[in-house]
Amino acid sequence: MISKRSSVVVVGSGLMGTGIAHAFASNGFPCLLVDTNEAALDKAVATIGGILDGGVKLGKMSAEDAAAAKARLTTGSAVSAAPKDAALLIETVSENLAVKQAVLKEAEAVLNEDAIIATNTSALSVTEIASVLDKPNRAIGMHFFNPVHKMKLVELVLGLATDEETVAITRSWCDSIKKTSILVNESPGLTTSRMSAMLGNEAMWMLQEGTASAEDIDTALRMGFNHPMGPLELGDLTGWDTRLAVLKYLHSTLGEKFRPCPLIIKMVAAGRYGRKTGHGVYEYDAEGKRVPGSGMKGSLL
């Protein structure tokens, strides 16, 4: 049983870090959100406040509970700011092995030896990331899904050294924030990232070949398979730069079936990453809302 007095540290205030911090703060846990970028931290706090305020308007939580959740969220510029009694640290920094290893190594020097150290990586090896730790048995992958406040799944990824106690405690953490966890043996792309990368890549091949427009490809998946979002919409949300990095990794480890579609490479080179840049497969306004009719047309490629 996880105590509500247990504090959590989230390193990285991007899209995923913001969502993960919200999940813990809104479920009663003191949460420190760490990032070297002060502007990114300010944006994350504002985003979390907006989600909480939206919950109040929808009647999903009281104004008092929203205020309490905001009060439980604090920010810092370095892992060294983490309280020594923090029971869980989750890194959500860029998909770069050396950067992630540096965060975990610093975390191990700050936290108690019984604290769980988790990585939200969607593609890299948990074993490799944790190899810099003196006690890699305390490390585990916690792969959340975007948007975190709506998506209920967490993939718990077992590194070579991850022990049963770490798994049990981490599953309890997932239960405490109302998430469903599944266990995944370490493998490139895990389960969901591997399937999603394949689906998104194939959708881009179809778009490049002129099989159908972006809107129609996404509609096919939403209406034909009951997906909440189409693969091109999801790519714009995730960011095609991130998608390309994952595909390159899967291509190098799992072979030709994951070779990135040239259209993805072209879009990333042009800075068309998706929502975060205002333009991907679709265009977005200043508020991040999709511009109607802006999807790429296969026949115009």
Automatic annotation (TrEMBL):
Transmembrane segments: none annotated. Residues 1-23 form the signal peptide. The keyword Transmembrane does not apply. Gene3D superfamilies: N-(1-d-carboxylethyl)-l-norvaline Dehydrogenase, domain 2, NAD(P)-binding Rossmann-like Domain. Keywords: Oxidoreductase, Signal. The keyword Oxidoreductase applies. PANTHER family: 3-HYDROXYACYL-COA DEHYDROGENASE FAMILY PROTEIN, 3-HYDROXYBUTYRYL-COA DEHYDROGENASE. NCBIfam families: PRK09260.1. This is 3-hydroxyacyl-CoA dehydrogenase. It comes from Spongiibacter thalassae.
